[in-house]
Amino acid sequence: KYGVDEHESKITSTAGGGTLTLEFGVLSRLTNDPIFERVTKNAVRGLWARRSKLNLVGAHINVFTGEWTQKDAGIGTSIDSFYEYLLKAYLLFGDEEYLFIFQEAYSAAMHYLYNDPWYVEVNMDSGAIVWPLFNSLQAFWPGLQVLAGDVDPAIRTHTAFFSVWKRYGFTPEGFNLATLSVQHGQKSYPLRPELIESTYWLYKATRDPRYLDAGRDMVASLQYGARCPCGYCHISDVEFHKSEDHMESFFLAETVKYLWLLFDLAVGPDNLVENGPYKYIFTTEGHLLPATPQISLVQEHCSYFGAYCNHGDFKHEPHASDMSADSQETNGSRVSGGWVRTGFPLDSSYLEASPVSGLIKGLCPGLTHGQKYGISYLAPVDTPHEDYSVKQKDTVVQSHALIVVSDHSANQSLSGDSNDDNVEESSEREPEHDPSQS
Questions:
Q1: Domains of the chain: total
Q2: What pLDDT sits at residue 2?
Q3: Could you read off the pLDDT of 79-100 as tens digits, one per residue?
Q4: Average of pLDDT values for 270-285?
Q5: Residue at 20 is within a domain
Q6: Average model confidence (pLDDT) across the chain
Q7: Is 67 a catalytic residue?
Q8: Is 19 flagged in the annotation as binding?
Q9: What percent of the chain has pLDDT over 70?
């Protein structure tokens, strides 16, 4: 009612300003008062209006002047859930403005931030790499890619991220990709759920048992490295497994929840998320929002989630900064053969993915529409059932593209690996660097 208190900071993170749409949108629908959804949508519009010519957003912005106070663009700390809520707001509410912004933002992220299989931070104006760091909050990204239908790069990135977990038993807050070591001052693991969340989504999409193996390893690490007399302890140093006597609330709200959903999915499933009367969207804090008719208010859904709705072919004026595939390099092409290829080789079995070009409208073998994604309110369409034991390999490599990449990078491979056939198109997210928040 009165705006920002004079004693409060005038700076907000992009994630902080862009991660309100789901909760407040639902509030508007439940109270029949549009004000909550309107102001949060305006916040997203304001952030996107101040994007750079590369369609990138920075990490922190002054809410009074609209000036970026930190211009590092990435998918991790301070930005992560901005991307997440763009897609999820479309999935829950059917508002195509969110989808359009997500398509543009995702395309730019894959063009400038993606160094197959890692992601880096770049200057939002120039695209120059400023921070070759795997940030633990980036680990939500493969799960978001699954929701978007871009499964192939999600598989490769998850493999790389999980290799860090395997090396230390946990993922540190920061892993330096140049030195291939834990970043100084970022050695802790506060029981974050992001990698486990992505593991759940990849298993949900592929039914590949390797994700159950990954989940088992994560449970073992938590049991033997983080178990305390009264719960599970914050790991202050992943190299020496030192612990601190506190447990963040998101451990129960998300970390344990996604582990339970992963293994329950494998044996059943028998829970409301998979078999309930409605489909659900997870908020960034792991809370469930049901896509009821009152909340969703979507008159027509995609009959196949994972492909762009036919009725959503809306027109828009391209941003003046639209990139040209002929004139722009990706960061992956600039550093091909460099540090991003060293230290953590990918399991070759992950690299057998078939190339995907354009819009894919296939069906995941052996899985119904609802089993695959469990998102839209529309009842699952009937899909031909195929024997999983026969089609397991095909299931692993199949990718279903929601993203309509209408830009610049549509004809440019996202991978720098010459022996790969890759896609040609390409917070619990915390708004600040406070590890006590997720």
A1: 1
A2: 76
A3: 999 999 999 999 999 999 999 9
A4: 91
A5: yes
A6: 77
A7: no
A8: no
A9: 67
Q: Active site residue: 173, 197, 254, 425, which one? A: 173
**CATH code, domain carrying 289:** 1.50.10.10
**What is the rounded average pLDDT of the residues 332-349?**
40
Distance of alpha carbon 105 from its chain centroid, rounded? Answer: 13
Instruction: In whole angstroms, give the CA distance from residue 210 to residue 158.
Output: 11
Task: For 360-422, give the DSSP string.
Answer: -----TT--HHHHT--SSSPPPP-----HHHHHHHHHH---------SGGGGS-S---TT---
CB atoms within 10 A of CB 85: 28
Q: Is position 4 within any domain?
A: no
Q: Which residue has the higher pLDDT, 355 or 341?
A: 341
The Cα–Cα gap between 335 and 2 comes to: 49
Does residue 5 lie in a domain region?
no
Provide the 8-state DSSP code for 430.
-
257 falls within a domain: yes
433 vs 78: CA distance, rounded Å: 7
The residue-averaged pLDDT of 373-402 equals 35
**What are the DSSP calls for 273-305, one per residue?**
HHHSSS-EEE-TTS-EEE--HHHH--S---SST
Residue ranges making up the domain that contains 53: 11-411
Q: What is the DSSP letter of 170?
A: S
